[in-house]
Each structure stands twice: as C-alpha cells, then as structure tokens.
Specification:
CATH architecture: 2-Layer Sandwich
Largest sheet: 5 strands, mixed
Number of helices: 5
CATH superfamily: Beta Polymerase, domain 2
Oligomer: single chain
Shape: globular
Radius of gyration: 14 Å
Strand content: 15-25%
Strand order of the largest sheet: 3-4-2-1-5
CATH class: Alpha Beta
Amino acid sequence: MEGYNRLSPREAAGKFIQNRFRNCQGALLAGSVIRGEATKTTNLDIVIFDCNIQAAYRESIIDLGWNIEIFVHNLTSYKDFLASDCESARPSFPRMVVEGEVIIDKGIITSIKNEAKEWNRTKEK
C-alpha cells in the first residue's frame, strides 16, 4: 500500500469515524487491509457500534481518498448478524469482528469480539 497518495487505512478510518460517528461506542477496521492483502483498489471495511442507531445498515461511501464500506450496528443488532452469518455457514461478519483492529473502544469491543469468537467456535463443532 506504500506509494499511494492518501491517508493510511488506520488514519483514514479514525478520521472518518471522528467526522461521521463521533459518539459511537466502538469501531473496528477489518477486511483485506488488516489481513495484509490490500491492493490499490482495496476499500476500507469499518464496523461501527453506535447505541443511537435504530437499525443496522450497510453503506458504501467515498471519503478521504478511500472507498469505504461501513457496517453500522446498535448495541443489540450485531448479535443477529453474528448468529445469521454463522448459521448460514458464511461467517463473514463474525470474521470481521474477530480480526478487526480497534479504532475506537468505549468499553464494549472485548465483549463483542468474545461473542463473535464464541459463535465461530459453536459453528465449528
């Protein structure tokens, strides 16, 4: 990812959250940039936990020189997505949570990551 004239993934994710989700309780940077598989066209996958959000949603945005895919949840909606992805044998959301790098944590991320790990363990049995 060196040589591209834009903010680093972590810097961009931090600024994006600060600008648009200032009061969120937690946020994770996930996906290929965390796994070391980023390319010039890689997007940023950001999982956001915000108690002020009524319902979960996903949105694609271009900001700070990056294509950004956000996965926004309140403090209960993510639980349904963990269960649904694991039950359908497509644990992409749990993987994002488990592998995600913490950008913001106001005391919730450890328990959410533990829930995602537990769902993954349950599915493997």
